[in-house]
TrEMBL record:
It comes from Ancylobacter tetraedralis. It comes from the Bacteria. This is Sugar ABC transporter.
Amino acid sequence: MIYTVECSFADPDSEAEWNDFYSLDKLPALISVSGFHTSQRFKALSGGCPVYLALHSIDGLDILTGEEYRRKGGGNFARWQQHITDWHRNLYGGVERAPAIGEGEFLALSATGPEPLIRLGLTPSAMQAVAMEKFPEYRWLARVERGTAADIGQLPDDVHVYAPMTAQLTSGGDAAVGKAR
């Protein structure tokens, strides 16, 4: 299953420090939770969506309600909470593991169907919301080679493109792709 966390951050003065916390402390803490398999952060290149996206491959909803998650990875945002806006969490079925997006790639997400991604020459994977907000109910994701990316300004409103901020962390402790900072 894919656990998504999306948000924007409203304080430019502390945003770099918050990003360091999330990328360097929060992601490693999450990947250490039993049942987390991959974690990676992204920043939106297109408008109309929260600025930040984290994709986590997990075993299921029970991981997010367990004591280990609460102790190691859940929350820990008290210092930043007042600046976190447009925050959304969803759990999607249909894709077992999030793709590792490298420095030479983007991640594209569509909430309107696979057709916009297919028209771009991509191979989308379908996900259906099964827990948490359950909105959007369906999403399609695809890996995009940077050299083949269409003009981001010409994409349909419900197709969002993200650049990796981190390498994908895996539960084995290794990054699945090159460093994306």
